[in-house]
Amino acid sequence: MQRFSFFQLALNALDRHRSWPAFWRAAAPRESYDTVIVGAGGHGLATAYYLAKNHGITDVAVLEKGWLGGGNTGRNTTIIRSNYLWDESAHLYEHALKLWEGLSTELNLNVMLSQRGVLNLAHNLHDVREGVRRVQANRLNGIDAEWLSPEQVKEFCPIIDIDARRRHPVLGATLQRRGGVARHDAVAWGYARAADARGVDIVQNCEVTGIDVENGRITGLQTTRGAIRARRVGLVAAGHSSVLAGMAGFRLPVQSHPLQALVSEPIKPILDCVVMSNAVHVYVSQSDKGELVMGAGIDAFNSYAQRGSFHVIEHQMGALLELFPIFSRLRMMRTWGGIVDVCPDASPIIGRTPVDGLFINCGWGTGGFKATPGSGWVFAHTIATGEPHPLNAPFRLDRFTSGALIDEHGAAAVAH
Amino acid sequence: MTGYRLPAGGAVDRTRPLGFTFDGRDRSGFAGDTLASALIAAGVRVVGRSFKYHRPRGIYSAGPEEPSALVQLGRGPWSEPNVRATQVDLYAGLEASPVNVWPSLRFDAGAINQFLSPLLVAGFYYKTFLGPRGWWRRVYEPAIRRMAGMGKAPDEPDPDLYDHAHVHADLLVVGAGPAGLAAARAAAAAGIRVVLADDGAQAGGDLLTSSATIEGRPGAAWAAETAAALGAMSDVTVLSRTTVLGLYDHGYAVAVERRTDHRPPGACPGHARQRVWHVRAARTIVAAGSHERPLLFAGNDRPGVMLSGAVRTYARRFGVACGRSPVFVTNNDSAYVAAIALADAGVPPVALVDLRPVPPPAASKALADRGVEILAGRVPVAVHGRAGVRGIDVRALDGDRTTGSLRRLECDLVAVSGGWNPAVHLLGQLRAGLTWDEAHATFRPETLPAGLAVAGAAGGTFSLAGCIAAGHAAGEDASAAARGRGGRRPVPATAPEEEAETPLLPFWGLSQGSRGKAFVDLQNDVTAADIALAAREGFHSVEHVKRYTTSGMGTDQGKLGNVTTVALLSRALARPMGETGTTTYRAPYVPVAYGALAGRHVGALFDPERITPIHARHVAAHAVFENVGQWKRPHYFPRNAEDMARAVERECRAVRGAVGMMDASTLGKIEVRGPDAARFLDRFYVNPIASLVVGACRYGVMCREDGMVFDDGVVMRLAPDRFFVTTTTGGAARVLDWFEEWHQTEWPELKVFSTSVTEQWATVAVAGPRSRDVLARLMPEADLSAAAFAFMTFRDVTVAGMPARLARVSFSGELAFEISVEGTLGEAMWDAVAEAGAPFGITPYGTEAMHVLRAEKGFFMVGHETDGTVTPIDLGLERMVAKRKDFLGKRSLSRDDTARSDRKQLVALLPDDPGTLLDEGAQLVDEAVLRTPMPMVGHVTSSYRSAALGRTFALALIRNGRARIGERVYAPLVRPAAGEMMVSAVIAEPVLYDPSGARRDG
């Protein structure tokens, strides 16, 4: 792998950048692998990378039906934070955030982590109660969290309207200063490049069409590019998790919904933090390119089409202007949609499945991007050892049978 | 200073000059100008700077595809960034300034990036800024961020109004060019309902610049007459200045109409600035035209290089010459038309450079007749002039290399045409199949979803006669589909006859023999070399290339550059264009104001504010309100400048000591009716409902499937087949949805209807030991004794002369009544109760006092003590949970984890210091010394000062709490005061006040 650095950039400028190698090989699938990961999004690529790096397993292929990073990794609003309520989630997301903090160096690719702080606004007494509760829980778990008064909110983000006469006035906010955003595509590319350098085959345009199970054990996969034998398989295909589970003969407690996001035209910097509001329902940040990046709520219906309903966006804009009346004349430049797999408790499933040798990582709902490094880390551990990492042990599939749910509807911040 | 106003021609009104300013300088144009045409006429060449390199840029096009001429329009609250000058109708006093320049357009500090450009290639930022540690955050990113963005957001709220409108139609026609007009006319003639939307101020599209005639009339006149005739028809809606932004499934389309943007700011008070149209049409014809494609050569971004069609438009429509000595460069026939138009307008081109070895015979003769030199088989290799074209060098073209000697052409305008891309954006949004059209070197639609048709240039038909015929046929098809008839009118005839097309020569830039940057995306400064770099680095998907290079990610969303990107990538990978494909088309077709999207749903109307029929009384009583769901509820009623604590204490004392009254109208109310109503409700509530007798009430709790408490309320049985259910204030809609979801999807066989009646009733709760005395004054005849009117019963009675439903329910533990009347009588009943209670000191109380009173009694509150993780058993309701019947969530309650005996359970907390109030939401730990991480055993769900108890108390959910009564836990303070970090408290039984329940009957 050719190292990236300013020196290399300058060196390559001399021959007008004609000597840069590819980020990853255009691998064709082999007949057999020790481990196959289905889904070359951030989570799948991170899994492959940590399988190679932490566990020395390099006979690995990552299969992607389209282009790598083209699913929810490339469609989210790039928010990173770890201020979840329950211990189980807080530890998992905090592990991810710690990995984020060293990720550009680790991958030798600038993922543009921007820790500019995440505000979660409270608009009624219930929000205040839940916000205080979460700040307290975060602190006791060693996660940075603060409770801000409306005046402190205004100080931290001067363009928010905190007028108490508004329909949904700002009554306070939680703040995680270490939260922020990152360049989502770069995360996928960085993990792909680093995994490829350790010998992992990343196979794009290769859709899984069947899962071969013999005597309750995985033996391989059918794909649009031929059959592939594998001793172990990890499914990391957000949006289509339940489709793949169906191929392996089991069901998931997952509902798939469209979720939209959108960006404004680029404008000069005006919003220097991430602002989220569950009650009026908007989350927004400004990218380093100057676009306001915003997410909407999920569409109520189930769908596998990566498109959502227009009225959801219209409502979203009312919410945005409630907080930022000065944004009214700015313009929405592009919208898009992804498919989120939502679990009943708004927490993911990471672990074993009823099929031996088949593992699943799914159900991240609307908030999987922030977990990318941590998710890959613990899923690689689970696949490599056959047993969950302590951090993902609570996120087992059978919690829906046992009732040991991890209800994060409050912290997920997108109304489900 | 090269552009100028031609002495004659164009559709501008030369008798109405309009003054405006650009970049602080006074300029003048005419009515009918766009900002772009007026700027060109005023001789302005550089109008802005590009995003990355800050290269000077001029106006490139004449339409919505404009990548370069972005301006900041207006000032103060009307200020608007990134407006395309090509789409701004000029008005008197217009103020515009360039974006992305500092300190000025001419001396722009960011232009230093041009010298760094060898380093600033596609994706450079992924490869650098990696160290030293902390520098990204402190040094690099802030520097990059300062460079971000184009225009500036306004710093004041928007003074304008926005609207939404809905329209249903048989047919939506997108675009009122020749094809769209022909389509709309043919369809409207059959009498179907047609909506015709066009983004221009006048209908006509390309006809506005054409010299052709239709039905013997000049194109522009025919268009105006046809549009006027359509507008006069009752079933036709013609929307001008209306851009269709998106097409969605089932014939749904969204468009934005710019209603006042062509007038000065504030000139149309009371009128919506923009209106978003929601169109639902059985069929849609997309006649959106096409966009001209630039040619790829070094320096193709210099001010003075622009699209040849735009040059023609400025000349013919606005009477503006874009230069004094133009050179045309083309690989197809269309530039000939433009060159002839310019020559005829008195601006003879220096030359026309045709990349093709053999130019079209008739057109080149027409041009030669006008004295224009035609240089066939040549290609530009260099553009001279930094802030404005001074000349170009051309050489002979051989494949993608050059041969022969260099020739310099002195010129101040390079009008380019690289072919035309059908505007397939809307079709693409609906996932129409696109195919690579080798002849036109572009993508055109091939397969269309049902109900969608395409006509004219958007479908790859470029001749005028072809557009008219295609539009006419599509309109006839639509009317035939809607009415079963069509074909009643002849296809409009066009003249003159058009010359057969000489095939276009696809050209994607020189592979060598040229120095300097050839731009693919002008706004984001993406060059041909950037695309090649991306391909070399393994980005083989066009979606990857877009994201890596940012090509097509500007405000124009790549309307000019995307096909070129596909072509360059395909060439680099030696792959067919069709295999590379396009990026995903997404709404909106052009950027749209947030305000327009929000429409009227802003400010107070963002979310409807719900008030009870008694609201005015609370306002008069100076109540402080609390938002509960959409409702405004009195939080407390301060008197004589009381603070909240004092007011609440007074209100609580009144209820416990005498009598209080509260407005309980916001509780959700659902009437459930039908022969199966009892069975139906029995399946929702954890406790039995079917056994309820008529005239009785029962408190009920319902769970989700997971066994977690979801809502609660009182159920009254009005008749054997009729129940009246109350829900929490915030939960009414959720509960009704829940009822409907199960009824419609799982139990459709049950004969039952659920109807929301929340707003039909107003309810006054009267609580306290003297409440019976108050009621007795209102209904002296009635026997209200506990024996005659038992707790948890109700009856329909007359109270103060008003028909009312009187129930004996209590949420405070005191003797209490709830009087419900029809909503219109709410105020009268409130007044009657207040008057009857006056001798007893009746006191209105708000939600906070209600909370204190219920918490003293250990009554849980949905949303306080429950958060979706709490079972009825956790709340101490084991005895309520039915053993014999089934209900939603019952099976979940027996799951291993849900059935654990050491779950978090509802208890009370008594702080060791009776004056210390615990924070609601505070976490609880078992150790007195703070450390992190620290295991949490529960949290405070409600916390109050109690007048009745003479101390503070709280409710909490604590792990295994019921077995820990008497033990001590600790709550770290959210904002610790000096020295004080923890509050200690003792766990207690949840019912702290009147545990025997003796006060209930008074």
What do these coordinates show?
The complex is a heterodimer of chains A (416) and B (1002). With 416 residues, chain A is an alpha/beta fold. Chain A folds into 2 domains: 29-109 and 184-254 and 345-412, FAD/NAD(P)-binding domain (3-Layer(bba) Sandwich); 118-179 and 256-342, D-Amino Acid Oxidase, subunit A, domain 2 (D-Amino Acid Oxidase, Chain A, domain 2, 2-Layer Sandwich), CATH 3.30.9.10. Chain A has helices at 6-13, 42-55, 87-101, 103-107, 125-140, 150-156, 184-197, 241-248, 310-323, 372-385, 399-402, 409-412, and strands at 32-38, 60-63, 79-80, 118-122, 146-148, 172-176, 180-181, 201-203, 208-214, 217-223, 226-235, 255-264, 274-277, 282-286, 292-298, 331-342, 349-352, 358-362. In chain A, strands 1, 2, 8, 9, 10, 11, 17 and 18 form an 8-stranded mixed sheet that branches. In chain A, strand 1 (32-38), helix 2 and strand 2 form a beta-alpha-beta unit. In chain A, helix 2 runs parallel beside helix 7 and helix 2 (42-55) packs across helix 10 (372-385). The N and C termini of chain A lie far apart (43 Å). The relative contact order of chain B is 0.07. The mean pLDDT of chain B is 95. Chain B contains 24 helices and 53 strands. In chain B, the strands form 14 sheets. In chain B, strands 9, 10, 13, 14, 15, 16 and 30 form a 7-stranded mixed sheet that branches. A 6-stranded mixed sheet of chain B has the order 44-45-46-43-37-47. Chain B has a 6-stranded antiparallel sheet with strand order 49-50-51-48-53-52. Chains A and B meet through helix 1, helix 5, helix 7, helix 9 and strand 16 of A and strand 7, helix 3, helix 4, helix 12 and helix 13 of B. Strand 16 (331-342) of chain A pairs antiparallel with strand 34 of chain B, so a sheet runs across the interface.
